Predict the 3D structure of the following.
Amino acid sequence: MSSTRHRPMITTESATPKPLHREPPQRIASSDDAAVRLRAWREGDREPFADLNADPEVMRYFPATLSRAESDAMVDRIVDHHERYGYGLWALDVDGRFAGFVGLSTATFEAPFTPAVEIGWRLASWAWGRGAASTSARRVLDAAHTEFGIDEVLSFTSVLNAPSIAVMQRIGMTREPAGNFDHPRVPVESALREHVLYRWSA
Ligand SMILES: CC(C)(COP(=O)(O)OP(=O)(O)OC[C@H]1O[C@@H](n2cnc3c(N)ncnc32)[C@H](O)[C@@H]1OP(=O)(O)O)[C@@H](O)C(=O)NCCC(=O)NCCS
């Protein structure tokens, strides 16, 4: 029988927008109906991500806010990182709305502990204060070794960034007492230059 027989048209368009890289394993992502969910980045995340990167409150512990072009370039680097390593900073949905990122990245700047895998987070301020960062970061640490073979994860932030240090402590990371360092990518004259160092081992 001929294969040219008329078949009903199948539309491939789905309600879920196309991911820009591979989705995270289920134990990192959590279930579809979870209030806090990690997933692959999508084109549509660029706009809300640029909004949070332009918010001085979110960027209070960074040297500067980001322009739209700088924010988009960061998304491109995040997607490249996922393609290169198979893991990275995942997009975070809180109650189904893009809220920022939580995940892993490779720190390559000059320091005694680099190169290293770092865990990081950046959320829009509407998503703060409900455990979304620490809930998803815990999932990432729980899966780091079994899913990606990562034995050690570091985290660092300005000594002034109390909310981020609190996340490191909440997820069970340990401070390196002698680990404070001056971040080479923060201007010398900035009060944000001195960083704390936290560590987690599988
Ligand atoms: C760092 C940052 C992610 C912390 O966000 P956060 O919401 O305070 O962190 P958590 O997800 O751990 O939530 C903890 C807060 O939620 C509350 N909470 C509510 N339900 C909770 C739950 N189920 N589990 C844990 N905490 C919960 C906690 O009491 C705490 O509130 P508090 O700060 O008033 O004490 C956020 O401030 C941020 O994005 N900052 C800007 C970017 C930044 O500086 N990134 C780090 C750079 S290295």
